């Protein structure tokens, strides 16, 4: 297996869970996402982007780090370019660190969509800002390792058919969830969280770090 962490430009806090997720992964930084490397104590193998959002003072902080430079006028974001390069280098799983928050809401929404597209190809993907994380939920059965009390929501990217949730405060049994419904917002783990979906696509957003739900 070849697991990659992509350092994106959104928010990121260091937690023990995040440390475990990025441990032993290969790392590619996307433009301003380089600022997370020192905090996490990890060394990227490549720095990708048009370098228009690198924090002041970091432009020359990694003189020996290989760079792959792209023009500012391009048809992909720096994050998507970094993901593409990871796939070219044989990635079999991705941690998108810094996927949420930041100054560009459109980029954060794109990260969710890209993760969903990759998951549909069979690629394991987790999106994280350290305190909260997202995992694509597609037709079939899924199980998650969250502890009791962890708050989570299921955000439908379409209408959902036959959604079952067990090991939770408010179980669901093969329910139909219209697109845009808030039915699946703010549940909590009680036991071992299992999900099953007959059709549709969704993102499970969890808050495994204490206090991240506020």
From TrEMBL:
Keywords recorded for this protein, A-Z: ATP-binding, Kinase, Nucleotide-binding, Transferase
Protein EC: 2.7.6.2
Gene3D superfamilies listed in its UniProt record: Thiamin pyrophosphokinase, catalytic domain (3.40.50.10240)
CDD domains documented for this protein: TPK
A Pfam family this chain is assigned to: TPK_catalytic
Domain Thiamin pyrophosphokinase thiamin-binding residue range list: 134-203
GO biological process: thiamine diphosphate biosynthetic process; thiamine metabolic process
Keyword DNA repair: no
Leading EC class: transferase
Entry annotated with the keyword Nucleotide-binding: yes
A single GO molecular function term of this UniProt record: ATP binding
PANTHER family in the cross-refs: THIAMINE PYROPHOSPHOKINASE
NCBIfam families the record matches: thi_PPkinase (TIGR01378)
Protein name per Swiss-Prot or TrEMBL: Thiamine diphosphokinase
Taxon lineage: Bacteria, Pseudomonadati, Pseudomonadota, Alphaproteobacteria, Hyphomicrobiales
